[in-house]
Amino acid sequence: MQVLLENPKLVLNVLRRDFPNVLEQIETKIKTIIPDVTLSDFGDIRWIVDDYCLAKGVSLKAWMNVPGFKRITHHREVLVALIIKFYQPERLAGIEGSFNKGFLLSLSRHLNCTYAVVRYSLAAALSNYNIYPAFRKEVDDLYENFKDNFNGNPN
């Protein structure tokens, strides 16, 4: 039985044939999870960072906390959640999956942070998005304000 469930194509075909109403419900749910525009070119991360800096009045060369300067953890986590929403919104919805290494390296490069800082920020951004309504609203509002600036993959 386990082998059958590991074959998504088979499961999808059975849903289409025998349970069309369930398939429609799943499709409707997915459309509410995946936003209007998603991106695939990691080069666009720099534009999201620039738009964020402009919107929030932040000017940083590196997105790490530096002794003697104001802590920027919250800004970094909001920005990372926003970038996730553009590239892998299903992760914010808690659907399983992993971040591809190219995505993590691009984030590290565009944020001028270490890979470790990026990994920590990803985990914090995902948790904060799902736990704190104010954090989620901030990210969603930024996404709505920025999405027209990008020619991503319309859904």
Describe the overall structure.
By secondary structure, this protein is mostly helical. The protein has 2 domains: 1-33, no CATH class; 39-154, Chromosomal Replication Initiator Protein Dnaa, Chain: A. 66% of the residues lie in helices and 3% in strands. It contains 9 helices and 2 strands; from the N terminus they run αααβααααααβ. It has helices at residues 2-5, 8-18, 20-33, 45-56, 73-87, 89-92, 101-111, 115-131, 133-146; strands at residues 37-38, 153-154. It has a two-stranded antiparallel sheet with strand order 1-2. Helix 5 (73-87) packs across helix 8, helix 7 crosses helix 8 (115-131) and helix 8 crosses helix 9 (133-146). The longest helix is centred in the last third of the chain and has 17 residues, at 115-131. The chain is elongated and about 65 Å long. The two termini are 34 Å apart. The mean pLDDT is 82.
